[in-house]
Amino acid sequence: MAETLRRVLNSGGAAGSGEENTAEAEPPLLLLGGHGSGKTALLFAAALEAAGEGRGPVLFLTRRPLQSLPRRIGAALEPLRLQKIRFQYPPSTRELLRLLCSAHETRGPAPSLLLLDGLEEYLTEDPGSQEAAYLAALLLDTAAHFSHRVGSGRGCGLIVALQTQEEGDSATALQLALLQRYFPAQCWLQPDAPGPGQHCLRACLEPGGLGARAEWRVTFRQDGEMTVTPWPTQAGDTSLHKSSSSGGQP
């Protein structure tokens, strides 16, 4: 789902035109960043983007309700888009697994995009690599099932947000390396020097072999409004590329 996130970032945070995206299904994407790095805001922006494509609903899974809807520029919070986003709040790993396993029993239009926020909160209950692999495989299987229902050539996308930990945690590093095998496309979020009353991030999108790598500066104002601008590329600046390709935290 790198192209969905790319459209969000290229549009500067504004909702798209609402035209349907008929591209083939894209590889699942892992959204990575530390605490407070804007992962939830970008997931919500991707949900709004997909909701405006004229396809099926968007399924947004998170452990607890959002305290507030992240603000974006333009007419992003259109009621028709919001109505197509279905929030569900599995409170535990067991409930999340139960929800995913029962996906084949759900009726109505199949989701065009499946989002999971806070994967790390579910993995802390069973931090072993076997549990992480099982959950990742089940997420991919659920997206594949929805894709089959949506129809050939369209598919259901999958984006999962994971909070990265401090360097030096070998167990977490092993877990991340395993998850990257299931999610070939990744987007890393790294803190950038903030301006007055702003929280700034550097977003690096690695599309997993489809499309070119790209970077942006994402800025959040104190009121929560998000703006996005292209990252000023400098010769020899490869810090994010090296860290992301090696599986480490930017």
From TrEMBL:
List GO BP terms, alphabetically.
double-strand break repair via homologous recombination
Q: Where is the composition biased (Polar residues)?
A: 230-250
Q: Which SUPFAM superfamilies match?
A: P-loop containing nucleoside triphosphate hydrolases
- Give the domain of life: Eukaryota
A single Gene Ontology MF term assigned here is: single-stranded DNA binding
Q: Where is this region: Disordered?
A: 1-31, 226-250
A GO CC annotation recorded here is: Shu complex
PANTHER family xrefs: ATPASE SWSAP1 (PTHR28653:SF1), PTHR28653
| Name assigned to this protein | ATPase SWSAP1-like
Q: Which organism is it from?
A: Delphinapterus leucas (Beluga whale)
What is the gene called?
LOC111166024
